[in-house]
Amino acid sequence: MRNLMALLYYLCALFGCSVGGTTIEHHNVIDGVDILDSRVRITERIARFDCKASRSGQCHYSLFRGDCPAPAAGAAPDPHCAQPTERFALAAGTTREIVGIAEGFKVCASDETAAMGADCKPRPN
């Protein structure tokens, strides 16, 4: 089913149909050196992750549920919201598509392998 959906979206794009979407860019440069250059394009239920450059050679992604409210001051976050629903890494210069992804997810990207929290900051061990 995922492949059929991807084929339909591809055919729409081929014939100039736009299905809308969102683009999320992560671009960090320090002293003229690319630390992380990544783009995530989300259209309907397809997410395309494009790791353009990374200081470490890999872009590390963590996906979190998007329907989680921010915890109240001093309160612990909901355990279902604190853990990523998916984690993966892409080599610089490569892409990955995920078809059938849940809507409204949150993307954190880093050049480091450390696990990230829903705030996109490294989690303490």
Structural overview:
The protein has a single domain (21-110), classed as Immunoglobulin-like (Sandwich), CATH 2.60.40. It has helices spanning 2-14, 79-82, and strands at residues 22-30, 33-43, 46-54, 58-64, 86-91, 94-99, 106-110. The protein has two helices and seven strands; from the N terminus they run H-E-E-E-E-H-E-E-E. The chain is 14% helix and 42% strand. Strand 1 (22-30) and strand 2 form a beta hairpin. The protein is globular, with a radius of gyration of 16 Å. The strands form two sheets. It has a four-stranded antiparallel beta sheet with strand order 1-2-3-6. The mean pLDDT is 82. It is mainly beta and 125 residues long.
Précis, in short:
The chain is mainly beta and 125 residues long. It has helices at residues 2-14, 79-82; strands at 22-30, 33-43, 46-54, 58-64, 86-91, 94-99, 106-110.
At the first level of CATH, the class is Mainly Beta
Give the total of domains. Answer: 1
Judging from the principal axes of the Cα atoms, what is the shape?
globular
What is the percent of helical residues?
Answer: 10-25%
Q: What order do the SSEs take from the amino end to the carboxyl end, as H and E?
A: HEEEEHEEE
Low-confidence stretches: none
How many DSSP-defined strands? 7
Strand content: 35-45%
Q: Could you tell me the radius of gyration in angstroms?
A: 16 Å
